[in-house]
Amino acid sequence: MLRYGGAAIPMQKSLDKENLQGIQYLAGSEEILAHMPEVEAREPFCGEIEEFLNFLSKTLLSMPEAKLYPDVVTFAFWIRRSSVKKLAERFQAEENCIHLGRGVAFHIAPSNVAVNYAYSFAAGFMTGNANVVRIPSKDFPQISIINKAVNMALEQYPACRPYICFVRYGREQRINDALSSIADTRIVWGGDRTIAELRKSPLGPRASEITFADRYSLAVIDSDAYLAADNQPRIVDDFYNDTYLTDQNACTSPRLVVWCGSQTARAKERFWSLLLERVQKKYEFQSIQGVNKLTNAFLAAAAQEGTHMISCGDNRLVRISLDHLFEGLMDFRGDSGYFYEYDCQDIRDLKAVCDDTHCQTVSYIGDPQMFLPLLKTGVRGIDRIVPVGKTMDFDLIWDGYNLYERLTRTIHIS
Question: What is the CATH number of the domain that holds 112?
Answer without folding.
Answer: 3.40.605.10
